[in-house]
Amino acid sequence: MICTRRRAIAAIASLVTLPSCAPSGAVAVGSKNFTESIVIAEIYAQALERAGLKIVRRLNLGSTQITMAAMSRGQIDVYPEYTGTALLAVLHHAPIRNGSASYAYVRNAFARDYGIVWLDRSPMNNSQALATTLAIAERYHLRTLSDLAPIASRLRLATIPEFTTRPDGLPALQRIYGGFHFASIRIYDIALKYDALLSGDADIATAFTTDGTIATKHLVVLADDKHAWPIYNVAPLVRAQTLRREPRIAPVLNAVSPKITDDAARRMNAQVEAGSDPADVAAAFLKGTA
Question: Where are the alpha helices (DSSP H) in 115-248?
Answer without folding.
Answer: 134-140, 145-148, 170-177, 193-199, 212-216, 240-245
